[in-house]
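Continuing the batch. This is chain 6 of the set; chains 1 through 5 are on the previous pages. Same settings as before, nothing changed between runs. Recording input and output for traceability.
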Amino acid sequence: MEMLVADRDRRIEVLERAVASAEAAAGVSSAPAVFSSEAPGGGMPQLTIRGGNSEATVYLHGAHVTSWRVGGEEQLFVSKQAIFAPPKAIRGGIPVCWPQFSDMGPLGQHGFARNTKWRVKASPAASAAAVDGSRCVLVLSRDDVKDAGALAAWPWPFEVEMRLAVSDDAFTQELVVTNTGSEAFAFTAALHTYFAVGSIAATSVEGLEGLTYLDNLDGRSPKVDGSSAVRFAEEVDRIYLAAPRAWAVVCEGGGGASERRVVGCATSEGLCDAVVWNPWAAKAKSLADFGDDEYERMVCVEAARCRPSEGTSLAPGDSWSGKQTLTAHTGPGKQRGAAAQQR
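Output for chain 6:
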């Protein structure tokens, strides 16, 4: 186990250096942002940002990122059966779980942020203009939420910003929560990222070895991951506690691909857990907005702060932020570990 943890820590250090370099480049704007209401969104407003080798598309509905392309290659999975009809959340991409993760609270599954229309931030107070080509800022407040039941269950005033940026091979997403009321409130959160993979059988998640996780398939009982990486041969639904600040999704070819693709994620201190999910065959068939065999081409790895006991309590006037930066690299197959890919 000590060797697993030491190897994980070495790979995390290399990945964090790569992400820091990508973030430093994220301030360069290369093309104007584009509004669109083209299919498949059925007239739902969306925004595309471009920078360097990357571009990303986000819907105002849910501040929901549905596409991140690097060199024209899609990195995110969206189901072909996804329903683009508010208030339904879009199946795939990066749903925003706030102010509640899963069923861990008084609200419906994953809270109301993913089911509500956000606005483009007009204020120049953000670190950059609301939209400047490679970056954009969306905002949500209590007044935007139309679900009376949700507001009754979670009644506090707030403002939430979603800050997005792309550059070269990187995508950065930051959730910023401000308490605009007179009483403290608590919340949990997750960036529920669906990664596209060529074949789930040839996919692994590296960087979580040696950690304790809650097994959602076994009453959230705590277990220790003693494997060298998370691999998939059946349904997996785990909450990794106190996760490291960096991990990677590794695709060893599969689906006709001959190259190895690594998507690394580095997170801020605010997102201290990681959730890994693949529904596998039986559950996939039970989801109306998910294809029966689509589990073979996706995996969710979510940067999260998702335990109620570790949720964030925010005093009036205070702010909290949680950020993930994704980097994508493709190279020859059969290298070992995310660190090998980054060297």
